[in-house]
Design brief:
Largest sheet: 7 strands, parallel
Helix content: 25-40%
CATH superfamily of the largest domain: NAD(P)-binding Rossmann-like Domain
CATH topology of the largest domain: Rossmann fold
GO molecular function, one term: dTDP-glucose 4,6-dehydratase activity
EC number: 4.2.1.46
Shape: globular
Strand order of the largest sheet: 3-2-1-4-5-6-10
Number of helices: 11
Structural class: alpha/beta
Radius of gyration: 19 Å
CATH architecture of the largest domain: 3-Layer(aba) Sandwich
CATH class of the largest domain: Alpha Beta
Number of strands: 12
Pfam family, one: GDP_Man_Dehyd
Cofactor: NAD(+)
Bound molecules: nicotinamide-adenine-dinucleotide
Protein name: dTDP-glucose 4,6-dehydratase
């Protein structure tokens, strides 16, 4: 980045992962980014919540712009004067993409292209494109290196894969400093309660049943959001232009094993579990090989799953005022 105290445009930071990144950055959690200023650009969809940024909203380095990343005129106005982009904004829930994919294509594909185009015109880079391991598809054994082909199965992952390819094309064609990250499943505080971990925790806290898809044997690698965001900060600090970095190293669990741990953490039993029809096209297992980011950038996950999950359950227990209105509004 060109300045020692850079200005960073962070899209989608009223959501789960982006808000964690901004809260950590502005409270000194990334020494290499100390003193950086942050502009958050967020449309505040159902998943965006300004309260997620409450702990940092009054800090001098913070500013907020309410708007859509697919609005080219707005992006053109906001982007100049920044030294980097960290792009989190997306429609992110697979189940919603199965019901209707138009918003996914609009935000994830068209919105990402709009940002890239403006970044190129105004010479703003590095551009960190935050993507997901879901772009690789499903893998029964072993792990995907960054060189594996993309075989996404859901409209969500397909829209993310499309945006990854457009982002990388801006590097290869135009020389824009684009860096792509692909992380496994995150958990932690402030995650919208439609996603499996907060949905199960909050249902159990409300004395409701939890819906377990299919045979419950789908496998995910659960990584604390803090580890994901630290990896993104490392990619911003010292990643290489045009490179893809997988981020993983969490705890691999079947959904049944995850449910077992959540039931125990919330003091419930298997009587609270209801098996429901499997998600259409449900990927069986995700697993990224994260050797590259470990060897090149020195990333290692630091959050132990057991402690992280206990802290997450405690956070939802103590913050009912945060999630109760969200669940009500989303009819969850
Ligand atoms: N949560 C995970 O487990 C995970 C794992 C790997 C990668 N990712 C990626 O990280 C990013 C953030 O995920 P998340 O879980 O925080 O999502 P989220 O749904 O919690 O938040 C998305 C944010 O983007 C905003 N947004 C949506 N459309 C927008 C638009 N058109 N213009 C501006 N803002 C818009 C929303 O208002 C919201 O604040 C996504 O790109 C996702 O693909 C997430």
């Amino acid at each position: 980045m060109s300045r020692s105290t850079p200005a960073i445009l962070v899209t989608g930071a009223a959501g789960f992962v982006g808000s964690h990144f901004v809260r950590t950055l502005l409270t000194g959690g990334y020494p290499s980014l100390a003193g950086a200023r942050v502009t958050v650009l967020d449309k505040l969809t159902y998943a965006g919540n300004l309260a997620n940024l409450d702990p940092v909203r009054d800090l001098p380095g913070f500013s907020f712009v309410h708007g859509d990343i697919a609005d080219a005129a707005l992006v053109d106005e906001v982007l100049p004067g920044h030294d980097a982009v960290v792009h989190f904004a997306a429609e992110s829930h697979v189940d919603r993409s199965i019901k209707g994919a138009a918003d996914f294509v609009m935000t994830n594909v068209v919105g990402t292209h709009t940002l890239l185009d403006a970044a190129l015109r105004h010479g703003v880079s590095p551009f960190i494109h935050v993507s997901t391991d879901e772009v690789y598809g499903s893998i029964l054994e072993g792990s995907w290196p960054e060189t594996d082909p993309l075989q996404p199965n859901s409209p969500y992952s397909a829209s993310k894969a499309a945006s990854d390819l457009i982002a990388l094309s801006y590097h290869r064609t135009h020389g824009l400093d684009v860096r792509v990250t692909r992380c496994s499943n995150n958990y932690g505080p402030y995650q919208f309660p439609e996603k499996v971990i907060p949905l199960f925790i909050t249902n159990l806290l409300e004395g409701k049943k939890v819906p377990l898809y299919g045979d419950g044997l789908n496998v995910r690698d659960w990584l604390h959001v803090d580890d994901h965001c630290r990896a993104i900060a490392l990619v911003l600090e010292k990643g290489r232009p045009g490179e893809i970095y997988n981020i993983g190293g969490g705890t691999e669990l079947t959904n049944k094993e995850l449910t077992d741990r959540l039931l125990a953490a919330c003091g419930a039993t298997w009587d609270s579990v209801e098996y429901v029809e499997d998600r259409k096209g449900h990927d069986r297992r995700y697993s990224v090989d994260w050797t590259k980011i470990r060897e090149e950038l020195g990333y290692t996950p630091q959050r132990d799953f057991e402690t992280g999950l206990a802290e997450t359950v405690a956070w939802y227990r103590e913050n009912r005022a945060w999630w109760e209105p969200l669940k009500k509004r989303a009819a969850l």
